[in-house]
Design a protein that fits this description.
Layout (H helix, E strand, L loop, with lengths): L3 H21 L2 E2 L8 E5 L3 E5 L5 E3 L5 E3 L13 E4 L5 E5 L16 E3 L8 E5 L7 E9 L6 E5 L14 E3 L4 E2 L2 E2 L11 E10 L8 E11 L3 E11 L9 E6 L7 E7 L2
Parallel strand pairs: 1-3
Antiparallel strand pairs: 2-3, 4-5, 6-7, 8-19, 9-18, 10-15, 10-19, 11-14, 11-18, 12-13, 12-17, 15-16, 16-17
Amino acid sequence: MADATEVMDNFTAVAACIDETRDNAVTHEGSPNAGEIAVFEGATGITGGDLTGDVTTSGGTATSLTATGVTPGTYTNATITVDEKGRVTFADSGALGGGGGGGGSALATKYTVVTPGDNFIDVKLDADDGYAYRVLVKGTNDADTRIYFRISSDNGQTFFDGAGNYKSYDLGASSAIDISGRRTVDSGRNTIIAFTLAGLNVTTTEKFALVGEIFSVDTGIGNIIRNVGGHNNDLPAGDFNAFRIYTSAGTMDGFAVYVERVY
């Protein structure tokens, strides 16, 4: 018959083993919400929680990536920053039409009316540093009209207006440059106007210039094939940054303006 002391020692050993097992057992802590994942709390506790870091959860079954702060959208000739995990953390549009070296680029940015029925199309340029742009205006007008060019004084918020701000190619005073060759373009005609627009290292009292050609149709003379051009009087520094193409009648719904930075 076993010694009573030995039996008690065995009972004590079993009890100690049970206590140790209980102490080391992984048990639930707290009151998790539906959809939370299991997260260790200390060495032996499990509770409901969320993932943090690059991938996060928020108490539901969906899992999402942490926002990088980059605005969703399409970027033209973009400058992109990628972090060590391959995520885009910065994006910004570059020069219109691709910029690049003296040879220019085959790419151009297309602009149309913002709101149907507008009689103008606005184009935002890079901050000027003597850049030059190739501009193509192409479309079909819905009224007999002339087509004009006007440059902005505050990055497209407003545009220069009033006699004396501009000189057209014939040096007559005007609030805008007539790029339709001083002719009325007939309604329904397909019109192409192509010109180069350059800021001459714009600082106070210096100029911008444009030179180009128009092809269209006028009832009185048939085809319009003429040069266009003009320069600005004393453009304030830093204001060569946006321009407007607009009509004197009808809308520009049927037009597009293509802009490419040459250098």
